[in-house]
Amino acid sequence: MKPDLLLTNMGKLATLAGHSAAPKTGDEMRELSIIENGAVAIKAGRIIAVGTTPSVLSTIDEAPDIPPIEFPGMFAMPGFVDSHTHLVFGGSREHDFAMKLAGKSYMEILESGGGILNTLRATRSATLAELRSNAFSYAEGMLSRGTTSIEAKSGYGLDTANELKMLRAADSLSEMLPTEIASTFLGAHAIPPEYKGRTDDYVDLVVNEMIPAVAEEGLAEFCDVFCEKGVFDIEQSRRILLAAREAGMKLKVHADEIVQLGGAGLAAELGAISADHLLQASEDDLEKMRATGTIATLLPATAFSLDTEYADARSMIEMGLPVALATDFNPNCANESMFFTIALACYKMKMYPQEAISATTINAAHAVDRGRETGSIEAGKRADILILDCPNPDFIAYRFGINLVHTVIADGEVVHTRLGP
Known about the structure:
The protein folds into 2 domains: about 5-80 and about 375-415, Urease, subunit C, domain 1 (Roll); about 80-365, Alpha-Beta Barrel (TIM Barrel). The protein contains 16 helices and 16 strands. The chain has helices at about 55, 95-100, 105-110, 115-125, 130-145, 160-175, 200-215, 235-245, 265-270, 285-290, 300-305, 315-320, 340-350, 355-360, 360-365, 395-400; strands at about 5-15, 35-45, 45-50, 70, 75-80, 80, 145-155, 180-190, 220-225, 250-255, 275, 295-300, 325, 385-390, 405-410, 415. The strands form 2 sheets. Strands 1, 2, 3, 4, 5, 14, 15 and 16 form an 8-stranded mixed sheet that branches. An 8-stranded parallel sheet has the order 6-7-8-9-10-11-12-13. Helix 5 (about 130-145) packs across helix 6 (about 160-175), helix 7 packs parallel to helix 8 and helix 13 crosses helix 14.
């Protein structure tokens, strides 16, 4: 066996192996399957061997053209999977920040023409090239922080032409970066001004025009909906999601973020792959999610940016729900860092660092239906691997606020490495 790339002498290698078929739950989330003095062999973008350095070297009968790269004393793990982002948009929202500081709520800012509607105007006026350039910059920054797979939603165009423009921009990123991109149609993110007071008419547009247009071009793997009081109610959300499922898309739901509307229960009812936010979800609806295997994707940086309470991750894990973590990168939550997300999850949601690592790798991979492809370091999977300049998993949350990445390997390529020893 001749690998293209050989990584050896890693202080600790967290493989997270054994959960490609289903996400981790309960106590499983604290088990990282760590190999001391680990090594990984890579060929054609895939992992071909993983184990201790002596065991992997024993399988090599021809040395790679590139000398083996050694990482003594460092901690290696799978690349981060960011399973909830709003990566593509125009403009920015620093001017909304003053309203936040004055005590205005998310919904109050939205009602005043800010928030999503502010971004809608900027996105509609942006060209495809401008949206692509902005999204590339954000994705590249995420990659340098260890994120090798990104879910990217539309939802700031809110008409057919602009929603398609956003999804085309997201689709083009996989040609520009070695990052896995999962695209999500979120035409039901808000009600555009031209449909104010006519939400059902806008739902008609989403169902009868947008979803067929997106499906015809094959631009979205998933469909999401902002199921929330004052946005899309349960019945409107159900109608949109059923239409998307009929068109061949898998389902996600922005659920129970601000009020307890029942979005988590709807996600379970329709077999959604994930329900996201869940700050106000009822225990009964969370139990329905557990029974159907719907993943709870928690977004602590959103609570941080809105200065609200945090989702009850501890209870969800203890009840056996599969929990994922994501940045929720968007104009209102400009968080590109999974390290910051992990720190918030540990400090504010009482997750253990090992649980947070599981939630940002293998469980997040399942939240975008890629658990068999990435999220762990196992033979046959994409070679998405992080080498961190730290000795163990606890250090990741302890040393918050910095980028611990030494080297990023995405799809078998060394795409970022820190200078020096």
